[in-house]
Design goal:
The protein is of the alpha/beta class. The protein contains ten helices and eight strands.
């Protein structure tokens, strides 16, 4: 019965709510997402006790399909954006180019998905919207996912992708955009002091910056967050970390010793489990006199920017404003 209800709610979420007046969508999405969390909790309970690799893989594959479906359904592709896959690249790299691209700056997008999901399919429509609104040429790369591949696979793939993309634009300013696990991945590169490439600006959307379970504050949000299950998030983080400690600064930049860091914009919702990640990392950056702009929203959910709601439009408009204001301002 739970699965049947979940299927009906999924159809309602992806096919009906986006067509309703935008003024009522946020409330409806919030109500439906609460039920979807119940479904996810039921799925998690099946593999809650010492899951096998096969069980983890089954969960990941199912999640990848779900994220792909949501990404394709919630938003439409911005047709003004020219999309292409770059040939002969070391990892899969895709290019989003607006009609009149910013001549001095480009962006690299680091996708989220808990390190076990996310692809060009799940993110194509959203990134096209970002490219259209910011007027930036945006590059998107795919990295190896868990449970098939564990740390430092994604980190290594990110370095390979950034090196390749940076070589295409040696004289332009760069901006890295990372959401959720992608925010942690991008930030992990910035605090990897054995790696020399840095962006001029960093934009983080609900970033996952602490894979450990050390911060007790997260437990305060476990019932307020309507999409993320705290036990599942912790398990995924510990498993992806593999033999490395989950408080490794590259995995969990919240524990990094900040030596230098790019100007940063962070967007987060006050009700999500990752809220404290954003707050604590913002404090850390301010202590080092890094230019950081923290923007918060109330009553929403993790990665709300991907939903066709007015608050997502507000967030994207603020990203546009940040990109424009940072044209000639960078501390790199």
């Amino acid at each position: 019965m739970v699965w049947l209800i979940a299927k009906i709610l999924e159809k309602f979420t992806l096919e009906i709510v986006p067509k309703l007046p935008i003024q009522i969508r946020t409330k409806l999405f919030r109500s439906v997402l609460k039920f979807r969390k119940i479904r996810d909790k039921a799925r998690l309970d099946v593999t809650n006790s010492n899951p096998t690799f096969e069980q983890r893989l089954e969960y990941a594959l199912d999640s990848r399909v779900g994220l792909n479906t949501s990404g394709q359904s919630l938003l439409t592709y911005s047709e003004s954006i020219q999309f292409s896959q770059i040939d002969d690249t070391p990892v899969n790299i895709y290019k989003f180019e607006p009609r009149n691209p910013n001549p001095s700056k480009y962006a690299i997008y680091f996708h989220g998905g808990g390190y076990f999901a996310g692809s060009i399919t799940s993110h194509k429509n959203f990134v096209s919207k970002l490219s259209e609104k910011t007027n930036l040429t945006i590059y998107f790369f795919e990295y190896r996912l868990s449970p098939e591949y564990l740390f430092p696979s994604a980190h290594d793939d990110a370095k390979i992708a950034v090196d390749f993309i940076s070589s295409l634009h040696p004289d332009k300013q760069s901006i890295w955009i990372g959401e959720s696990a992608g925010g942690g991945l991008a930030t992990g590169l910035c605090v990897d002091y054995d790696y020399l490439v840095r962006p001029d600006n960093l934009i983080l959307l609900s970033p996952w910056l602490d894979l450990s379970d050390k911060e007790e504050d997260k437990k305060y949000f476990k019932n307020r967050d309507i999409t993320i299950i705290i036990d599942g998030m912790h398990d995924v983080g510990e498993f992806y970390s593999s033999e490395h400690s989950s408080d490794n600064p590259i995995l969990s930049p919240i524990y990094a010793d900040i030596k230098s860091f790019p100007d940063t914009l962070i967007q987060v919702c006050t009700d999500e489990l990752l809220y404290n990640d954003a707050i604590e990392f913002t404090k850390k950056l301010k202590e080092k006199n890094v230019n950081v702009n923290l923007q918060t929203w109330n009553g929403l959910w993790h990665a709300w920017q991907f939903f066709p709601i007015k608050e997502a439009n507000e967030a994207i408009n603020l990203i546009v404003k940040y990109v424009k204001s940072s044209e000639n301002q960078s501390s790199r």
